[in-house]
Design a protein that fits this description.
Aldehyde Dehydrogenase, Chain A, domain 2; alpha/beta; Aldehyde dehydrogenase (NADP(+)); Aldehyde Dehydrogenase, Chain A, domain 1; five-stranded parallel beta sheet; ALDH_KGSADH; oxidoreductase; 19 strands
């Protein structure tokens, strides 16, 4: 069941929502992995059954293209199924058993058994730019449910009808599969979302959105009498570094890929390359203009996004000595919606240093800065100075350039991003076990990932039991291992051979 309604004044009370989540946690944390896995698969199947309805609603509310939305809905189903596999496998519990050992090298060792345990009810603030994959049934929700945590979603106002419908469909599927009532709930008002950050029943929160709002919520979560983990994705400019040789070998291909990556979904992607660093004196204008002029007009997500885009573009274009390579279009309709084509500007590296935030802050939309760096530039130092924390950093090298000092550069880049690409483009985040979608501040508030199977770790905590009778242990720690999960065992007497 889902506590949800479209008008803000119809939200259930915060205390009711929190109480229902706490009650659901008591049952959900004890469910066998097979039951939780089946529920996640059931939720994925229910979304597939309603695909036509959901995609049509998403199109109307967000202006995103049908093909993009169908792909995103498929990704959402895959995320749920991927976490079902993780739960069924059981390795995520990281079960460790230390046999009692009177001869342990540091003195007698008790019987110790450790596992990971769900933290409790999770509050998830949905994102605007991924109405399926980072919203009600998106990756944060899937990871928390997989961990055994009930989820309260704060719906994004950019797609309210879609949020309500997805919550109804998924919540019903979870209950049908045997999970407790109120495993998934939805609230719509901003006041309810903020109040739930403070509520003692909520034990962790996830957020995808602006740096300003994310910082406020993170401070609130940290300032509680009992602080809670807050996993916030706050924005990223995702610089792309290109060597002179790479441009010489495949310049048109690289520049065409760059324009496509900036322009996809009207640039409303957290991994959009906001900066392209190229050697000084490179002739890139014609290739960029040619590719950009072929990009069709696309609607921004909502009037609020349009307002922010218009303001930021105006600030950037007011910077003295900035050069416009391709001036994109911007028009608004009677409803305040904006339709845009991409804009590309160019600046020498020193101008970024002198202009500061005016140039360096993220522009959310189809806008990017081409940065010209002089010969001998230490790119690792430039990244550390100007782009200290990002979701991604990309390096394009020429044939034979992968040896020598480039290895040191890659190591230095890894200090400033969660994902380092050697070729390719950062837009398009693979939903796979090895994905890292997070990065150093200000990309995210804490080390973690919101994509890939490691995302489940944000909603788990370690618990050890010492000298506990079998009947008092949770199932994964019992000798008979009724959940049949993988376990690491420290055998009695092993330390004598160390």
């Amino acid at each position: 069941m889902t506590a949800t309604a479209a008008p803000e004044h119809c939200d259930p009370t915060v205390d009711d929502v929190a109480r229902h989540a706490k009650e659901a946690f008591d049952g959900l944390a004890r469910t066998a992995p097979a039951v939780r896995a089946a529920a996640l698969r059931g939720a994925a199947a229910a979304l597939a059954d309603h695909a036509d309805e959901l995609v049509a609603t998403a199109q109307a509310e967000t202006g995103l293209a049908e093909a993009r939305l169908r792909g995103e809905l498929k990704r959402t189903q895959v995320q749920l199924r991927l976490f079902a596999h993780v739960v069924a496998d059981g390795a995520y519990l990281d079960v460790r058993l230390d046999e009692a050992d009177p001869d342990f090298v540091l003195g007698p060792r008790p019987d110790l058994r450790r596992t990971l345990w769900p933290v409790g009810p999770v509050l998830n603030f949905a994102a605007s730019n991924f109405p399926f994959a980072f919203s009600v049934a998106g990756g944060d929700t899937a990871a928390a449910l997989a961990a055994g945590c009930p989820v309260i979603v704060k719906a994004h106002p950019g797609h309210p009808r879609l949020s309500e419908r997805v919550a109804e469909i998924v919540a019903a599927a979870l209950v049908t599969a045997g999970l407790p009532e109120f495993t998934l709930q939805l609230v719509t008002s901003q006041d309810a979302g903020v109040a739930l950050v403070d509520h003692p029943a909520v034990r962790a929160a996830a957020f995808t959105g602006s740096q300003r709002v994310g910082q406020l919520l993170a401070a609130r979560a940290a300032g509680r009498p009992e602080p809670i983990p807050f996993f916030g994705e706050l924005g990223s400019v995702n610089p792309v570094l290109v060597s002179e040789q790479a441009l010489r070998e495949r310049g048109n291909e690289l520049l065409g890929g760059y324009v496509a990556s900036v322009s996809g979904s009207a640039g409303q992607l957290c991994t959009k390359p906001g900066f392209l660093l190229v050697p000084e004196g490179t002739g890139y204008d014609d290739a960029v203009r040619s590719a950009a002029s072929a990009v069709p007009e696309h609607r921004l997500l909502n009037p609020s996004i349009a307002d922010g885009y218009e303001r930021r573009v105006a600030v950037v274009r007011a910077v003295t000595d900035l050069r416009v390579v391709h001036g994109g279009g911007f028009r608004r309709d009677a409803d305040g919606q904006a339709w845009v084509t991409p804009t590309f500007v160019a600046a020498p590296l020193d101008l970024l240093r002198s202009a500061g935030a005016a140039l360096l802050d993220e522009v959310f939309g189809p806008f990017s800065v081409i940065v010209e760096y002089p010969p001998g530039t230490d790119l690792g130092a430039a990244v550390a100075e100007l782009f200290p924390g990002n979701l991604t950093l990309t390096l394009h090298l020429g044939d034979g350039e992968t040896a020598g000092e480039q290895g040191e550069l890659v190591t230095r880049l890894a200090r400033h991003a969660g994902r380092v690409l050697l070729g390719g483009w950062p837009t398009g985040v693979a939903v796979t076990p090895a994905m890292q979608h997070g990065g150093p501040w200000p990309a995210t508030t804490t080390d973690g990932t919101s994509v890939g199977t490691a995302a489940i770790g944000r909603f788990l905590r370690g618990v050890a039991f010492q000298d506990a009778p079998q009947e008092l242990l949770p199932p994964p720690l019992r000798d008979d291992n009724p959940w049949d999960v993988p376990r690491t065992v420290a055998v009695r007497g092993d330390s004598l051979g160390w």
